[in-house]
Amino acid sequence: MPKVPAHLCERALGMLQGGMRTAGVARAIHSYVRTVRRLRQRYRETGRTADRLRSVRPRVPTPAHDRYIWTSHLRDRYKMATTTAQVTPRTHNPSISAQTVRNRLREAGLRACRPVVRQVLTRHHRQQRHLWAQIHRHWSRMDWQKVLFTDELRFCLTRGDGRIRVYLRRNERYTEACTLEWERFGGGGSVMVWGSVSLHHRNELVVIAGNLNAVCYREDIILPHVVPFLQAHPDMTHKHDNATSHTARSVHDFLQDRNVSVLPWPAKSLVLNGIEIVWDKLDRRVRARAIPPRNVREHAGALVEEWGNISQQELAHLVQSMRRCTAVLNAAGDHTRY
Asked: Residue ranges of the Transposase Tc1-like domain (predicted)?
């Protein structure tokens, strides 16, 4: 029931003493009739309109304890509330609970959530990422549309999603209805595909049998797909990452012999690759199908089909997403939200 301010309580009491009906007083102060009746009863018993004094649970941590809790969790962001509750210095109280620690942290604006998983970045990696972003920061739409973004990715038929939640009752944790079954390392098989996109162009999606090595990348990808496309569009630049199969000496020499221009790429810079947006769209489309693929063969067919269903207008976001260069630059080469 909402608490009535003190000045409205005094006003309501004056109306009641003046002979006004309870319902009329409730409408006048925008409250409930039952609230006004309790107000009148309280005045008859105590002679006052204020609430009775209530006994509340005493606050265990002192302001000094609160500062200690905040500081310790700011210094160590992975520290558990149970650990802090055990080591927090106490004077009069024997202990404080982990929930008390969580309450104090919530008051300070600190809440527990899953950490973002990113690659390990050394100082050299950060410097190279920052330098690359600084060079390409002012590239225009015309500059980015001359880049052919290429990459390969392995799509697993099944996967475990750490964000899934299940509602269960007591002692139902291990029942069949509440247990999520999945196999490690992409149980059910996986499909590796290679694709290349630009602002106005897109090559066919290539399904790779097994793993991708330097010989397979040169003979099955570069020679039949990349070289003919770049010969037809000589003003475009080839972009691939620093995977071992891409940076092998045989591949490097092969590209040089055919005068293929390659965009330099900093190590461990997956977030800078705009084609990741296309992979995400492709994965979402396959998983949203009315009849999901049941085996590797159906999965490969679904990937190829949905690749062709992605409109060229959607691929335009690939170029727009390269504003992430500014985010990397502002982070001095460190991790960003991309």
From this structure: 66-138
Phi, psi of 183 (to 5 degrees): -100, 150
The interaxial angle of helices 275-287 and 296-309, nearest 10 deg, is 120
| Residue count of the chain | 338
Tokens describing residue 134: 């600084």
* For the chain, domain boundaries: 6-46, 63-107, 123-330
Task: pLDDT tens for the chain, 338 residues: list them.
Answer: 457 788 888 888 888 888 899 999 998 888 888 888 988 888 888 888 777 666 666 676 778 888 888 888 888 888 888 888 888 766 555 678 888 888 988 888 888 877 777 888 899 999 999 999 999 988 888 888 899 999 999 998 876 555 566 766 777 777 777 776 665 545 568 899 999 998 888 889 999 988 899 999 999 999 999 999 999 998 999 999 999 999 999 999 999 999 999 999 998 888 788 788 889 899 999 988 988 888 889 999 999 999 999 988 888 777 777 878 888 888 888 888 77
Q: Which two tokens stand for residue 208?
A: 């790779």
Q: What are the Cα distances from residue 284, in Å, to 273, 303, 310, 315?
A: 18, 10, 11, 15
**Do the strands 237-239 and 147-156 form a parallel or antiparallel pair, or are they unpaired?**
parallel
* Helix (H) or strand (E) segment spanning residue 285: helix 275-287
Contacts of 165 (CB under 8 A, 6+ apart): none
CATH class of 123-330: alpha beta
